[in-house]
Automatic annotation (TrEMBL):
Protein name: S-layer protein
Domain DUF4384: residue ranges: 56-136
Organism: Deinococcus carri
Signal peptide: 1-21
Keywords, in A-Z order: Signal
PEGA domain span: 197-263
SUPFAM superfamilies: Starch-binding domain-like
InterPro entries per UniProt: Carb-bd-like_fold, DUF4384, PEGA
Superkingdom as given in the UniProt entry: Bacteria
Amino acid sequence: MPPMKKLLMIPAAMLLGTAAAAPKISAQSIIVNPAQPDLSVSVRVDKDTTGNANPTYRVGENIRISTSVNRDAYVYLFNVDATGEVTQILPNRLGGENFVKANTTAVFPAPDATFTFTVGNDTGLNKVLALASLTPLNLDQLSSFKTQQDQFATVNARGQQQLAQALSIVVNPLPQNSWVSDTAFFNVTARTPITTGGLFVGTNVPDATVFLNGQRLGSADSTFSNIRPGTYPVRVQAPGFADYNTSVTIQAGSTTNLNVDFQAVAVVTPAPQSSTPVLDLFRNLLGAALGVPLQDPARSAYDQKVRDLQGQGYRLQQTRNVAGGYEGLFVKGATTATVTVTLGSNRTVNVQVTENTVYRY
């Protein structure tokens, strides 16, 4: 359902009081019956069941208003927000009967209502006015539904003083013991800005662990919250797989998604070293030519290249199967190297090495 415009800031109020003469307006009330009627009404907001406090709501927060009477009566609710704008909350076109039975409490919106009251954007003191009458009131000169689409009536008065004057005209023809009012107050404050973000890490394998900026976050396939905005290195570890390393950017108020697809890693078991590594390679290739290979020629060539690069100080990060062979990722300081070994035509083995180095200036 649509939000309740200012209604949601639903303030308004009325304080039962006594006076010797005409109704009077004060900072703590909107309209006061000059007599002490035997009819009583109370209005409350859901954060203050006593009616003695000024609870605080944040912009966008839901609010409920409750009212009760000691006799069967018609109850009218009005909102006066911090800027003085007045909205008629009850009756409205969204639902909610304004006839309240004696010694019962009516809640607006009701628990089964299909709409909510949401606190509006104007911060400051709000007042909710409840006016109870033993007979229905004619509010045509005070409020009206401007269009067929309006869910709440527009009140012509602005501010509590004009509202009090307008309501005085409505109730003055009635006996003083047939109407009464009450007021509830609450403050509206700005929504606290969201200063942290979240990170979701999903994987295709079980038992993976997530590290952010060197700190262990926990198991993968989880959402981690309350992370300060920024760009961080991420490492995901899983048993039997090479670590997955990347970086993520965390933004306030949102969750960054990272999906890690671990690839099966072939365990590289270097062949025993011989006095002549090149001869070792040709032995395997010769075995393949004779139909009794000691090892797959592409694997043999790949293993040899792994040993060569490891001898140069490179560290093997990952090995994976590719079409017709193998591919490995190596790291040495700021340099990364990729080795691709595949079988070619006419009993050939293709070995391709690409290298990338990042220099700082």
